[in-house]
Amino acid sequence: ETKARTREELEQNISVIEECLKTFSTYIPVHFTDRPEEYSKYWAIRSGIFPSVGGTRQPGTTCLIEDVAFHIEDLPEATADLQQLIARHGYDDACIYGHALEGNYHFILNQSFSTDAEVKRYEDLMNDVKTLVVDKYDGSLKAEHGTGRNMAPFVKYEWGEAAFETMKAVKQLFDPKGLLNPGVIFNDDPQCHIKNFKPLPLIPIDEASPAEKVNKCIECGFCEVNCLSCGFTLSSRQRIVLQREISRLKQSGTAPERLSLLEKQYRYPGNQTCAGDGLCSMSCPMNINTGDLTHIIRQEILPKGSLGYKAGNFVANHFAGVKSSLRPVLSLANFGHSVLGTKAMSSITKGMHNVLGVPLWT
């Protein structure tokens, strides 16, 4: 990738790059393009690196991404050192990518926090990353991403006592009570990055089921662009997040009140408003269809032979007749709305929803 202010300058840049690359044996010939139909595919591949690497992780582990920056002149040596550092700590499935033109790299790795040994491995990795970036190359531990708790323990180390205290003082002026993102940038705990890990429990699903793929979800949100209910109730990603929490509470046996509340609150935004059409899978790098998960949940709520199942089966087999019979019902509802008004009808339908479980949109 290269950029320029004018077409002539751009072509000159390309010529220089191509000349430099002639000394290397490349897998395919070097080719630059300004055609959207071509470079959009390359960008799609690039955008899919993070979720694709995360999707290959062992279920129950966490996909992490960090970004660091080096001076351009140090980039070749720094790249090799970063690769060796990650490999030395045993992250064989890690990936480095990003914006080399700006000296900015992302590195992705899959990490388990289930044992003290794994937590220690991650702690050692981050300490070595700090030393490599700050001490050896005078780089930046943060390039374009926010600092976050993962890098918060190293902010003072990178910037020094004076700059650190100045930044804290500025934040204090705008946030004297410490309400804005407490501990995310300024944190006095040197081990805050290895505490309070977000659990990623497995959702218990038969391995033969298509829905088993949901356990590969890294919660990247790529699916949300195609989710019909995103912004209305829950997105496909949020459904998986909530089902993971429900699974965790079931497996741990803790907080039964919270579990009961979550299951109740999930019914409408999580279950009843999911279209179940699988559109989410079209933009998911792992082809995860959250609709498959919703179908399983619905089967558990209405098992074969139950009254609800029989009613649904009857409707499916007599759809034309049912549709015709609903027309006067809708006319009656419209008449009631015109007589009672919106406020009264809203109260009635809300009451029916709370008592009978009738979806609000009816």
TrEMBL record:
GO terms for biological process: lactate catabolic process. The keyword Oxidoreductase applies. Its cofactor is FAD. Residues 2-184 form the FAD-binding oxidoreductase/transferase type 4 C-terminal domain. Residues 214-288 form the 4Fe-4S ferredoxin-type domain. It comes from the Bacteria. Keywords: FAD, Flavoprotein, Oxidoreductase. One of its GO terms (molecular function) is D-lactate dehydrogenase (NAD+) activity. PANTHER family: D-LACTATE DEHYDROGENASE, D-LACTATE DEHYDROGENASE, MITOCHONDRIAL-RELATED. This is 4Fe-4S ferredoxin. It comes from Bacteroides uniformis.
